[in-house]
Write a structure and sequence with these properties.
The chain is an alpha+beta fold and 136 residues long. Helices cover 26% and strands 29% of the residues. It has 3 helices and 7 strands. The chain has helices at residues 67-71, 81-87, 91-113, and strands at residues 2-6, 15-21, 33-40, 45-52, 57-61, 121-123, 130-132. Strands 1-2-3-4-5 form a 5-stranded antiparallel sheet, with no helix packed on it. It has a two-stranded antiparallel sheet with strand order 6-7. Helix 2 (81-87) packs antiparallel against helix 3. The radius of gyration is 20 Å and the shape is elongated.
Length: 136
C-alpha cells in the first residue's frame, strides 16, 4: 500500500491517492492488480483507480454512489457486483463473483446451442446479425 499526494500552484495539497497493490501467487488471475482511490482535500472520494501495474490503470470519475448511481441504467458495467468488490479491495469476493458471472454466461451459451431463442431479437438470415423485433 502506498500514498501519493499531488499539489498545484494554487493549493499546497490538492488531492491524495491511496494505492493498494494486491499480493497473490504467480498463477492467480489477480496478479499485478492495483486498486486505488483519489480523495480531495476534505477526504471525499472523487475517483477510483483500477488496473494492473504492468499493463494499465483506469481512472473512473466519482465514487459511483448516491445520485449519480440512481441515473445509471441497470446494465451499466459500473454497477457490476464484481467491479464493486474489486474497487472496495475485496479481491476474493470479486473473483468469486466473476466466476459466478462466467458460469451464467456459459449456461446461456449452452441454452442457445440447444435452440433457445432471444425474446426481442431475431437473426437475419442474409447478414447473420440480430435485429430488434420490438416488445421491450
Amino acid at each position: 500500500e502506498g500514498t501519493i499526494c499531488g499539489a498545484d500552484a494554487r493549493n499546497w495539497l490538492s488531492w491524495i491517492v491511496v494505492i493498494h497493490f494486491v499480493i497473490c501467487c504467480f498463477a492467480s488471475s489477480m496478479g499485478y492488480s492495483v486498486h486505488g482511490t483519489v480523495h480531495d482535500k476534505s477526504g471525499k472520494t472523487v475517483a477510483t483507480l483500477i488496473g494492473k501495474w504492468d499493463e494499465s490503470l483506469h481512472y473512473v470519475n466519482g465514487d459511483n454512489s448516491g445520485k449519480a448511481k440512481e441515473k445509471l441504467p441497470r446494465t451499466d458495467s459500473r454497477l457490476r457486483p464484481d467491479q464493486r468488490h474489486l474497487e472496495n479491495g475485496e479481491y476474493e469476493l470479486a473473483n468469486s463473483e466473476k466466476l459466478r458471472l462466467e458460469q451464467r454466461q456459459r449456461q446461456a451459451s449452452r441454452m442457445q446451442q440447444m435452440g433457445w431463442k432471444p425474446r426481442w431479437f431475431a437473426r437475419d438470415k442474409e447478414t447473420e446479425m440480430y435485429r430488434y423485433i420490438g416488445g421491450y
